[in-house]
Amino acid sequence: LLLNRTMSIVPGGWSDPKPITDDVRQIALQVQTELEGKAGRKFDKFEPVLFSSQLVNGINYRFKVDVGSEFAHVWVSQSRDGSTVSVSGYELGKTADDPLI
């Protein structure tokens, strides 16, 4: 498992929300199509703005994503070897001010 300093992962606990880094942005972008399928619609925009992470047997992420007229909170699981990512949950209808929890 390779981690960089910008991720600040705390084993077992969630990190504080922080601005998106380039590495983490790529993880969020990998699940856009899956999220659109689960939500039943295409998003006008898909721009991750915040994230937090949790080290488990792999890494769990929580993302705040600007999807155009609203924000989405998206939970993503990444396998231990980093080879797969998948949406494990999401909430639509969020605002820029809603806390990422």
Q: In words, what does this structure look like?
A:
There is one protein chain. The protein is of the alpha+beta class and 101 residues long. The chain has helices spanning 22-30, 32-39, and strands at 18-19, 47-56, 58-66, 71-78, 85-94. The longest helix is centred in the N-terminal third of the chain and has 9 residues, at 22-30.
Keywords:
5 strands; 2 helices; alpha+beta; five-stranded antiparallel β-sheet; globular; 101 residues; 17% helix
Write down the overall mean pLDDT: 90
Poorly predicted residue ranges: 1-6
Count of DSSP H/I helices? 2
List the helices and strands in order: EHHEEEE
**Rg value:** 13 Å
* Percent of residues in β-strands: 35-45%
Shape: globular
State the strand order across the main sheet: 1-2-3-4-5
What's the total number of strands?
A: 5
Query: Major sheet: size, sense and barrel closure?
Result: 5 strands, antiparallel
Distance between the termini: 25 Å
Provide the helix percentage.
10-25%
Going by helix content, strand content and strand pairing, the class is alpha+beta
TL;DR?
The chain has 101 residues and is of the alpha+beta class.
Reconstruct the topology from this structure.
Layout lengths: L17 E2 L2 H9 L1 H8 L7 E10 L1 E9 L4 E8 L6 E10 L7
